[in-house]
Amino acid sequence: MKLSRQLVLLMLGVITLLLVVSLVISFNNTKQFVENQMVSHAQDAATSLGMSASTAMKDNDEIITTTLVNAMFHAGDYQLVQVFDVHNQLLVERSLDVQVEGIPRWFISVVELELPIGESVVMDGWAQAGKIQVISHPGYAYRKLWNALIDTFKGFIISALLILLISLYLLKRVLYPLAQIESQAIAISNRKFDPIDPVPETIDLKRIVEAMNHLAQKVGQMLKDADERAQQFRDRIHRDEVTGLSNRQHFNEVLEHRMMSSDSTQHGILALIQLYEFKQFNDKHGYVAGDELLKKTAQALASALDGMESIHIAHLSGASFSVFAEDMSFVDAGSLAKTLTSALATLSSQMQGFMDVGHIGVACFDGNQTVTELLSMADVALRDAQSESANSWCIYQQTTDDTVTVRTASQWRDTIESALNKDWLVLQKQAVFRMDGKTILHEEVYLRLLEDGDKSRLMDAGKFMPMVQSLGLAAMVDRKVIEKALLMLSEKHEGILAVNVSPVSLDDADFVNWLEKTLLDMKDIAVKLILEFSEYGIVKKLDRLKTLQQRLGATGVQFSLDHFGRGFTSFAYLQSLDLQYIKIDGSYVFDLKEDSENSFYIRGLTEIAHGLDIVVIAESVESQSVWEVLPKLKVDAGQGYYLAKPA
Amino acid sequence: MLMTMLLVSAVLAEGLGLNDKIINWVGKKYGVEAKQRAENWRSLLETELILEKDKLTRVNNFFNEIPYRDDFENWDNKDYWATPIEMIGVNAADCEDYAIAKYFSLRDMGVSSEKLRITYVKAIEINQAHMVLAYYQKPDAIPLILDNLKPDIRSADKRNDLVPVYSFNAEGLWLAVNRGSGKRLGNASKVKLWSDLREKMKKELSQ
């Protein structure tokens, strides 16, 4: 039972008790009062009748006596009037039943009024001629008692109602902080740690509220600390201390994953950048200035590439930097090289006399090279550049014939638009398994393009999605994919489907409106849909995602981030999102070993995610050894070629 | 109701209950002579007398010794009913004081209330409203009059100087007063007088 209800019941009890007590007291007072009045009424009547009768007695006139009795009896309220002679013989008697109109019979039979006898003597000169007894009629008394009872009752009910209303209002005010504490507790379980303000004045509640505020602050701090520790740890193993960029090890992992992973990109440009005569610079100006130059170089590269998606910059060693642009193809190589060169040019003022800042070697990845091959291709290009001239760049030229059809941008547009119009886009599904290896958590949907409508020639998304995005067709394609997924779900699909959505599509108001309306119209199906965004793409559009989550809150659709950890972003934003899943980027999982640095990172990540009620899924599980390590790191589920291929 | 009856009869049975304490108080308040008068009153009440006629004579003579003075100069109140204790203390009385003092004394000495009536009369010689105590040997007898105007007790038919107006059944009023247990009873002025007297007696006797 609610506290407020108990208090109200208690109050009702007390009020009822007060009502009964005050009714009894007021009733008894009134009763005593009317009884006293009846005493004097009877005595007054007896005395005055005695005096009048004494005059009549002188003449011994019994008729006059009887008339006097009648007159008095009819004029007043009497129950009984009796006249006795001096020998106690009854001479005259008048009586009336007790009947009172408008007062219930039970009242008269329950309330017993004492009926006093008024007595007086009848004189005949000095001699006593007789006596008179008078009993007042109790009708007036009963009526007075009854009315008093009703009046008291009415008055009390009105004031009781008034008291009750006022106390209910006060109670609600006093107990308001309890409701606040309740919502704060719910907020804490939803990872929101706002304190209750203002603190209530009632002492008991004040203490609870203060304790809750303290708890909220502590829990919030603990989560923040855990987040920071995990970030520090990740930074230590993956970042270069001087420049803050990825180190060689991490860059290699990224590169390897992007290039080897079956479901990933089929494009990419690798650029190697080497500062010229860095050793001499160090010798001349010292290591502090050398480190400073490396930092400036890192900043220059980062700011030159800022705004481009899927770019990885690393400081490999000494004077060597590298850039991997995974969504770019060979057509972009020249412009990338020029961008990097102008970035280096800004450094010449730093070089203090070294006019030759550095050189750039570029190699293009088209899905047919290994990491080692690509690196050596870039290295060859770098050597060419160094031998060419100061501050020059060079692109590695493929000597063998390319088997992949090379298309221009307008050809891509034709291919994609005709695929959209002719329904040459098809979906493949890859199951995400729980750690038991049998239960399917959900299936991720992959988009494939039928080249020229030929069902045997499936083109992977990694190959054409970069073009889709650069042609501004992302929202159209995403809409098509979601439509197809919803159709699958509504037709027969039992499980849950995760659909990849391009972060750029969130900029498209028409797309977002369409999504909200569509999902609201089919809520029973929307709950089986997961919208998946790449982490490195969405961190730049967090506000868009939050707005989307608010708008879709009523649809029951779920949210997931994939390729998690690819960007070096803080985990802090996780708290502000309402996520159900995160998928750890394949570069951490690809060749995962127990007790490796990546496993420490994953363990930290799962701890934080579980604190936020987020399910953690490992991407790119492609070997049994990796699959066996995952449970030890508390990962909830996995997907990859080892478990199931897209089909 | 039963309780009230018991209380009333207890008060009646105890009578006035004059004791040393009261008499000493009278001495302290009104002086040595007053104390002696109170002593005399107590010995009168304690005298064993068989004949009611003797009781009447003794009581009548005792109180008629106290000089008459009008209410007004004595108590600054036109209709003030003094208690017997006050009357003995100040050694002055009004006509109703005599009747009441005699009534209480006789009741204390065992005379039945049925035989006693307080009678309002007109005194012809002084042309004033007056009050006497009437004693009825039997209900239909001619009463004996105890009066301070004529100090000796005479039969009513020998009192041509008095015109009877009305008598009170003292016992009935006494009961009525006690039923009110000291509370003021509406507009009954007669009852109020008796009630005043009773209250004052109680107060003084308990001091």
What do these coordinates show?
- The complex is a heterodimer of chains A (647) and B (207).
- Chain A is of the alpha/beta class.
- In chain A, 52% of the residues lie in helices and 18% in strands.
- In chain A, the strands form 3 sheets. In chain A, strands 10-11-13-14-15-16-17-18 form an 8-stranded mixed barrel. In chain A, strands 6-7-5-8-9 form a 5-stranded mixed beta sheet, sandwiched between helices. A 4-stranded antiparallel beta sheet of chain A has the order 2-1-4-3, with helices on one face.
- In chain A, α20 (624-629) links the parallel β17 and β18.
- Chain A is rod-shaped.
- Residues 400-405 of chain A have low confidence and may be disordered.
- With 207 residues, chain B is α+β, with helices and mostly antiparallel strands.
- Chain B has one domain (2-206): C8orf32 fold.
- Helices cover 51% and strands 14% of the residues of chain B.
- The longest helix of chain B is centred in the last third of the chain and has 18 residues, at 189-206.
- In chain B, 36% of the residues are buried.
- Mean pLDDT of chain B is 75; it is low at 1-14 and 174-194.
- The interface between A and B is medium-sized, with 25 and 29 residues.
What are the salient characteristics of this protein?
heterodimer; A: 647 residues; Translation Initiation Factor IF3; Alpha-Beta Plaits; 4 domains; 18 strands; B: 207 residues; alpha+beta; C8orf32 fold; five-stranded antiparallel β-sheet; 14% strand; globular; disordered N terminus
